[in-house]
Write a structure and sequence with these properties.
Blueprint (H helix, E strand, L loop, with lengths): L1 H20 L1 H8 L1 H14 L10 H31 L2 H6 L5 H30 L8 H22 L9 H4 L1 H10 L11 H7 L5 H12 L9 H25 L7
Helix pairs in contact: 1-6, 2-4, 3-4, 4-6, 4-7, 4-11, 6-7, 7-11, 7-12, 11-12
Length: about 260
């Protein structure tokens, strides 16, 4: 256990150093979420109040949490994994005593820590900056964020299968981001969707995570909150997507460039 922790710490520290040297990835990880939350609030402010039963501030807080997870974890990690693969870093690491899971986890640690810190800042400053109330179920909010990090890190590794270069990562990650933004409650709250559409969208990869995040901010009942049945469904959907994503990584992830 100590050896594993030591290897993960070393890999995470090395990846953090590389992240600090890459201005594009650093911008996506640190500044892009702030800009997207501002744009999200502006966009939501133009919606009819009937489509925002949870309120503008709370919708921004919920969607902002999802934006942080997508941008910092998913989009950033796809570029990171592809870059390390094309530079033969992953291949060289596999020749040592580091396990495959440790390699992928170590590379994801900086993004995971940055996402956690940014979500914590949003949670702490949300009531003052957005006019939202404090999260009513912090435990569910934390569970949703942690589950989102695990799921999106696995999905990032899966996306590298169709991503040949770092430059193309912006294109290959865009479909998932747009689908999640419109269908999983990031930019368009699930309450604003027609019931048949919302039922289908609830099965999308990030929808379960966003339901947990919403339950964390709004509680499990009352206006905007979700009930126990919906909460259980969200948890099961999230677990199912994590299992499927991990299976896909084990089966199709490439450790070296295509020749």
């Amino acid at each position: 256990m100590n050896a594993t922790a030591t290897r993960l710490t070393a890999l995470g520290r090395a990846e953090l150093t590389l992240l600090g040297r890459n201005r594009n990835n650093l911008f996506v990880a640190l500044l892009m979420p702030v800009l997207m939350i501002f744009l999200l609030r502006t966009s939501l402010a133009e919606m009819d109040e009937a489509g925002l039963p949870m309120g503008l501030a709370e919708a921004t807080a919920v969607g902002g949490t999802g934006m942080i997870l997508c941008l910092v974890v998913y989009m950033n990690l796809v570029a990171t994994y592809v870059a390390r693969r094309e530079e033969l870093v992953l291949k060289r690491l596999r020749t040592g005593e580091v396990r495959d899971t440790e390699i992928l986890t170590g590379a994801a640690l900086p993004a995971a820590v940055i996402a956690l810190v940014q979500c914590a800042v949003l949670t702490a400053l949300g009531p003052a900056a957005l006019g939202a109330h404090a999260p009513r179920r912090p435990d569910l909010l934390l569970l949703g964020v942690l589950a989102g990090i695990v799921l999106l890190a696995a999905l990032a590794a899966v996306t590298t299968v169709i991503t040949r270069t770092v430059e193309s990562a912006g294109l290959t990650t865009l479909p998932f981001f747009l689908v999640s933004a419109m269908g999983s409650g990031l930019m368009v709250p699930m309450d604003a969707l027609p019931d048949p559409v919302a039922s289908v969208c609830s099965l999308l990869p990030l929808s379960g995570v966003m339901e947990l995040v919403r339950a964390g901010w709004l509680g499990t009942g009352g206006t905007g909150g979700i009930g126990g049945k919906e909460l259980l469904g969200a948890a099961l959907t999230t677990v199912a997507w994590i299992v499927l994503s991990v299976f896909a990584v084990r089966k199709w992830f490439r450790w070296e460039p295509r020749r």
